[in-house]
Design goal:
Radius of gyration: 20 Å
Number of strands: 9
CATH superfamily of the largest domain: Catalase core domain
Bound molecules: protoporphyrin IX containing FE
CATH topology of the largest domain: Catalase HpII,  Chain A, domain 1
Number of domains: 2
Helix content: 25-40%
Distance between the termini: 55 Å
Largest sheet: 9 strands, antiparallel
Shape: globular
């Protein structure tokens, strides 16, 4: 039975989420300092921007943050999904934290509001059960003797071979998404499109978010052959000029073909075209000073840090609430830091210097 909030919660999901929290905590690599995120550990710079809500939105889009025109100072953390060498294929993240957003939030108190996006329109797990099965195959691969027998292969490939044999060969749709996600080789974090993949609320509507770059603003550069090529390009492009993204929304207008509980399925843009809600303006700046890099390292993003009108929807999002929270708390504890939200004045001081 679908709830009025568009969701259909399968029995037993809470227990699976609790298991995932424990498994993710157990996998956190505490051997280095600072302890990094369990996923998306490497970031490319700490960018400041202005999130400017469109002045004349259609009435049906005017909810929550988008109820009236406004402008919010924003920090952006661009990241790799897993790789530490930017030349390797990977998924890429763009996490936004808006400051000075008034009103109640679904997580914590304060005036910040997060959006978490990646450079692929769909996610590789349909639901929590599917994610757990895949995650357990990955854990099994780490413990299995199979990768050790395949000593002639890089460890990653040997482990993925194990995951394929034990899980993914039975799930070709997930496999094809995963392969497409990790095959991306962008030249600049400012020149790619990012999607939420999972749905959220826009008032009464179920929607997905995306951002698309204003590529014409970007100064072209020869891509450096470096493990840090994304940070280097970001820094060069923002030294040379400004950048921008359109923040877009897609409304769910056909429940049969646009599931809330399955982010492996893309919603058809012909049936429901993407519509602009805001512009993310990125001024000329230097995003990679040691102080800014460390500031972004310490930040925590969570899709649930949002106004209730933008509540995350679907099983994958339900799982992320406690997983991201637990991982962030453990990481900050080990780093002897605070997981409290930063203040805008703290951040402004860093970019003013
Ligand atoms: C059940 C599914 C998922 C799990 C278990 C998961 C797990 C995680 C974890 C543990 C972190 C690090 C949190 C921290 O230490 O602060 C993370 C970060 C991140 N995840 Fe997920 N994730 C899931 C789904 C997704 C989806 C659907 C997206 C698509 C947008 C996504 C995009 C990201 C990004 C961009 C970051 C980095 C955020 C930052 O810059 O701090 N994740 N995820």
């Amino acid at each position: 039975m679908e709830t009025p909030d568009h969701e259909e919660i399968p029995p037993g999901e809470d227990a699976l989420i609790a298991r995932l929290v424990e498994q993710n905590l157990a996998l956190l690599d505490a051997s280095t300092r600072p302890v990094r995120r369990g996923q998306h550990p490497k970031h490319h710079g700490c960018v400041h921007a202005e999130f400017v809500v469109e002045p004349d939105l259609d009435a049906e889009l005017r909810h929550g943050l988008f109820a009236r025109p406004g402008s919010y100072p924003t920090v952006i953390r661009f990241s790799n999904g897993a790789a530490f060498d930017d030349r390797k294929g990977d998924a890429h993240g763009m996490a936004l934290k808006l400051f000075d957003v008034p009103g109640e939030k679904l997580l914590g108190e304060g005036d910040t509001h997060d959006f978490v996006l990646i450079d692929h329109p769909v996610f590789f797990a349909a639901d929590v059960a599917g994610y757990v099965a895949l995650f357990e195959a990955l854990l099994g691969a780490k413990q299995s003797v199979l990768p050790k027998l395949a000593f002639f292969l890089p460890r990653f490939l040997a482990e993925m071979g194990h995951v394929y044999l034990t899980h993914l060969h039975k799930h070709p749709h997930e496999l094809s998404i995963m392969l497409a996600m990790i095959a991306k080789h962008p030249d600049s974090p400012l020149a790619i499109r990012y999607w939420s993949t999972t749905p959220y609320c826009l008032g009464p509507h179920a929607v997905k978010w995306a951002v698309q770059p204003h590529e014409a603003l970007l100064k072209p550069f020869d891509t450096p052959n470096s493990a840090d090529k994304l940070r280097l390009t970001l820094t060069r492009q923002l030294a040379a000029g400004e950048a921008a993204f359109d923040f877009m929304v897609q409304l769910r207008n056909d429940p049969a073909s646009m599931p809330v509980e399955d982010p492996t399925r893309e919603w058809d843009a012909q049936r429901s075209p993407w519509r602009k809600l805001a512009t993310l303006r990125i001024p000329r700046q230097r995003p990679d000073t040691p102080e800014l890099m460390s500031f972004c390292e310490q930040l925590s993003f969570n899709p649930w840090r949002c106004r209730p009108e933008h509540r995350p929807l679907g099983g994958v999002n339900r799982a992320r609430k406690s997983i991201y929270q637990a991982l962030s708390e453990r990481r900050h504890e080990l780093n002897a830091g605070t997981s409290a939200e930063p203040s805008l004045s703290e951040f402004k001081k860093l970019w003013a210097e």
